[in-house]
Protein 1
Amino acid sequence: MTYNVQSLRELKKLARAFTKEIVRSRMKRRGALVIGLVGDLGAGKTTFTQAFLRVLGIRGRITSPTFILIKKYKVAKSYKLKAKSFIFHIDAYRIKKPNELLHLGLKEILNDPENIAIIEWADRVKKILPKNTLWLYFEHGAKENQRVIGTSPKKGKK
C-alpha cells in the first residue's frame, strides 16, 4: 500500500489514522508493538512520529532522540491501552552496530506487550527487530512537501 501526501498537514492526518488503526490491532501481539520507519533525511519520519505520539496523548515538544537514542513516554489513557503502557521513540541514525541498542535495554522494551516502540532509521537495526515489525517507508515526492509513504520499499530499494 502506498500513500502520496501533498503537505505536512496530510502527513499528520495519515499518521493519526494509522495510529488509531494499529493501536486497535496491537491487542493480538505477544511482545511490544514495533513500528520501523525507513527513509532519507527529511522524508517525514519525525513528523509522522510526532503525530503518532500526539494521538496517544503525548504533549510538549517532541524531537527525535538522535543523540540520546531512546525517549520514553507514558501513554495517556486512550484506545483501551493499559495504564502502564509506554511508548519508546528510538532513533537508530547514529547506531553503527545493532547490538548497541541491546545494551540500552531494547530487548526488555520489545518483550513487554504493553510497550509500543517506534524506530526511526529502523533498517540500520533490522537484524534485532521482531519479524512482526510494521514497516513504513518514506520518500521525498516530486514537489517540495510531497511525500510517498508505503508499507514496502520501492523496487530496487531495501
Protein 2
Amino acid sequence: MQTNIIIAGVGGQGTLLASKIIGAAALLKGYDVKVSESHGMSQRGGSVTTYVRYSDKKVYSPVVTSGADTILSFELLEGYRMTPLLKRGGLLITSTQTIDPIPVITGEAVYPENLRDKLAAASIGAVLIDAFSLAVNAGSPKCANVVLIGALAARFTDIAKSDWLAALRSSIPPRLLEINQKAFESGFAT
C-alpha cells in the first residue's frame, strides 16, 4: 500500500510545515516516507507544491506526477489546478479561501468564477472547508494549514490520531502548540 499526497498552496500558507507534519505522522506509524517540495514564486505569493509519499514498503521517489490519492489544498484555485493529478476515486480536501495570484493582481488575468460549482461537478471526492475561519476561531489565522491537516487525519485512519498529535508536537514550537492543537481538532471534526 502506497499513499500519495500532494499539498498545494500559496507562499506563506504553511505547505512546507504541513508536509513535515504529515511525513512525521507516517514515520511514527512505521511507514517509509519521502517528502519533496517544488516552489513556484513562493516568497512572492506564488504557487507552492509539496509531496508526501509513504508506504509499508520502500518508497523510491518523493514526487507525485499523477495518481495522487489525496490533494490537500490551502487555496481553492490551487486545489482546482491540481485535480487532474488525482487518481480515480481520489480525494481533494481544500480550503475555501481564495487568494489572487500575481496575474490577477496585475490585471493580466481574472480569478476563475464558480470554482466550487466546478469542483462539485467534477467526478472527484471534494471536501471544502472554511479553514481560515476555523483557524481564527482556534486563535490564529496562521493555523489554517493545521486545520486542513486535522481534516486529512480524520480521513486517514491508517495513522492513529495519537501519531498525528505527536507529529504536531514535534513540529510546532511549544509557545504555539495549544492554538495549533485547537486548529487540528477543529479540522478533525469536519
